[in-house]
Amino acid sequence: MSAxxxxxxxxxxxxxxxxxxxxxxxxxxxGRLVGVTAAVGTAPVGSALTLDVKTGxxxxxxxxxxxxxxxxxxxxxxxQDMFAQxxxxxxxxxxxxxxxxxxxxxxxxxxxxxADQTGQNEYDIAVLRGGHDGGVQA
Length: 138
Known about the structure:
CATH topology: Jelly Rolls
Number of helices: 1
Helix content: under 10%
CATH class: Mainly Beta
CATH architecture: Sandwich
Oligomer: single chain
CATH superfamily: Nucleoplasmin core domain
Distance between the termini: 21 Å
Low-confidence stretches: 117-138
Strand content: over 45%
Order of helices and strands: EEEEEEEEEEH
Shape: elongated
Radius of gyration: 18 Å
Number of strands: 10
C-alpha cells in the first residue's frame, strides 16, 4: 500500500490581525499534524506575530512570524499532534506586532490522514476498527 500524500488545509484571517482574531474549522477526518506554516500579506512591525494551533485548550503547534518577516514555519508539539474527525481546530492569535499589526494571515496545516490515534497506518485503522485484533483469519 502506498502512502497517501499529506493534505493541506488553509485557514485565513483577512484584514488587520488582532489578538482577538481567530479562525476555526471542524476537521472532516482524523490524522496527524505534520507541519504548520503561516504567512501574512503585511509584516508585523516592532515585534513578532505569534499564534497557536489548538483543539480545545490543547496546543498542537506554535508559530512566530518575526517583526518585518512575512512567513514562518511552526513548531509542533509532538505529544499533541493527533486529532480525530470532528475535532475543532482553531488558530488563536496571541501577538500581532507592537507598532504595526500584521495583516491578511494564512495558516497552512499539513495533515497526514494515514495515521490514526495511535500512529498506525491506514491498513491498521481498517483492521482495528473492524472489531478484531488484527490477526489474519483463514
